[in-house]
Structure formats: C-alpha cells, structure tokens
Amino acid sequence: MKRDANPSFLNGVPELLVLQLLKGREMYGYELVQAIKEATGETIVLGEGVVYPVLHMLEREGALKSRRQSVSGRSRIYYSLTPVGERRRRDIQGSWQRTTMAIRNVLEGPRHA
C-alpha cells in the first residue's frame, strides 16, 4: 500500500522544520529542501515550491534574515534565525510536542507513573 509522503495534517510542519534546521546554522533554500529530506529519512519531502514561500513569509515577519552571497558565479540567498524566529521556533515546537504526546496517549494508552 502506497503512503502519502506528506499527509494533509502536516500543515504548519514546513515552518517548524525550517526554523529548527536554521537554529544550528544558516542555509540557502535548496540546501534546506535537502536537509529536510535527509533529517526526516525521506518521510517528509518538500519541494522548493513549498520551502521558498515559507522562507519569504518568515523573513517578512522578522523571524529570518537573509544575505546574498556569490558562490561559484551563482548568487545564493542564505537565511538565518533572528531572536523573533527563535521564540517562534520554541513556541511551535512546544505546541507540536504537546500534540504528539496527546496522539501517542490515544494510540498507546496513557502512561502511568
């Protein structure tokens, strides 16, 4: 049985993944596409058509900053997290952790200490 690589309930996940991956270092768009694919074991595969709009939205909202750099004659835009982005990342991460715990409780039953 074929599984969807990106089920519809994953709305909002690209933002979290981008923010989390940029926590450690700056990256350019295609690099983020590849990092998401690798970090999720190819369970979540996001194209540039998903990642770039997320990057642009986050930059407009002050969560990311960018800088242009020429690499081998090509211009790349590198993105990095701002303090606003770090707060947003922590908030979204906390929300997803609570959500996944709630789902785990349903699937496995609540854990008793």
From TrEMBL:
Signal peptide start and end residues: none
Annotated SUPFAM superfamilies: Winged helix' DNA-binding domain (SSF46785)
Pfam families linked to this entry: PadR
The Transcription regulator PadR N-terminal domain, residue ranges: 18-89
Protein name: Transcriptional regulator, PadR-like family
